[in-house]
């Protein structure tokens, strides 16, 4: 059934060559306490490409990306089945250490969550310190590179010792992005990263996403369809635990093939 | 047109309101004034006896020469040892229940038991201490046996306070750690525990300062009542402030009652000191966090 849906996707229509596959998800089911919230998702995500995941509240889009770095299973009563291949290797294979996986797949959350007791500098270095990979001689270079990568360096370079929690919401979110970049992941998962930010801060984070896709595979969950249109190459529409349609972003928003996608993007529900 | 009934005279409602307010104020004032009376009466009795000599002397058959030194030192030892035992074990138990056990059936069972254990009379803990530490583990009537017994007594409260403190650390911060590739141990050790520490310490110190006034369990595990030496280590026999006070109160001579009053003042000061430490520690650590 899920395969059928996949077959309606255009292989490479109108677009250039598809990038290499970073994630290949096969028949992914996820549940909380026996209540299934993802009913067999099949999807491929391209390397160094931004994929937006849209859909109404409760459609399973957050759960989906939390399955991509095995954060879903941290919630008590949560279960996952199916395959998630990252560079061809199943991350749910018993031999895979989820801790090591998460060092390759960074995540940015809905609400900015810098460590309140730490300075800006220490927040950036937190991932390395936490995992005992901290090298004092490289610290300054890492801090500058991560903060520059997150487009925050110029705003904070003179006050790296100030508490991270003292920044504005938008700056905090970019600090969280810098913190994720500092551990040098290959993939960045973003779970509605702008939903707690004002439009100006949102625009900065969106600009940032544009520059980050040079180096990272990005999956961004968003409530905001304009945002999906602005930042992503491809968009996946989820509804009630199913992937309804995955298509190049401009095509999905102009010529959706599924009537449910059309109803959603034209505001008939959701 | 007549005013509708619910907008008429509010006299009765106002009367009830004022009466209820008075009742609540009385409920606050009654215990407070009784306590003030008690402490005032105590201070009157104690003032004549409490001086540096009283703090530095050993017990004596003559009330005017008797002092509280061994009991004070014994209590300080008990505070230190009990903290050293109850704090790490209690915090580790709380970490297990909050961070690891979470929804397992075992954790639920333990949780119910901890809540019940907090309500068990202290003399029962004394009997447990007597059977387990003094006899079975052969600690004899030592400071260590007393401290272990008091640790059992405060453990449920330390665990509950620590869990409460751990729960105040937002889930989002744990997720931030995991998303950065940290293990549970790294997240707990470097982010969760440091943030929960002020709450944990405050709860633990308050629990211990209560336990330090306990008499029954110490009598049962065999604290001495007439001690003319200072404890020289955890295996030493000992006495403690509440025991010494109890001993003096039970003497017929009036002069010993004054000693008891002075002893109570010393005990209250020790508890006040501990509670102050708790408050200061919390303020300090919270500012840092």
Gist of the model:
By secondary structure, chain A is α/β, with parallel strands linked by helices. Chain A has 11 helices and 10 strands.
Mean pLDDT score of chain A, rounded? 88
Q: What is the name of the CATH architecture of chain B?
A: Orthogonal Bundle
Structural class of the secondary structure composition of chain B? mainly alpha
What is the straight-line distance between the termini of chain B? 65 Å
Overall form of chain A: globular
Could you please say which CATH topology of chain B applies here? MetI-like fold
Quaternary organisation of the protein chains: heterodimer
- Most extensive interface, residues per chain? A-B, 30 and 22 residues
The neighbouring-strand order within the major sheet of chain A is 6-7-8-3-9-10
CATH superfamily of chain B: MetI-like
Q: Cα-atom Rg of chain B, whole angstroms?
A: 25 Å
Q: Could you give the count of β-strands of chain B? A: 0
Order of helices and strands of chain B: HHHHHHHHHHH
Q: Radius of gyration of chain A, Cα only, in angstroms?
A: 19 Å
Mean of all residue-level pLDDT scores of chain B: 86
| Proportion in β-strands of chain B | under 5%
How much of the sequence of chain A is in beta strands?
15-25%
How many structural units, i.e. domains of chain B?
Answer: 1
- Compute the number of helices of chain A: 11
Number of helices of chain B: 11
Query: What is the helix/strand order of chain A?
Result: HEEEHEEHEHHHHEHEHEEHH
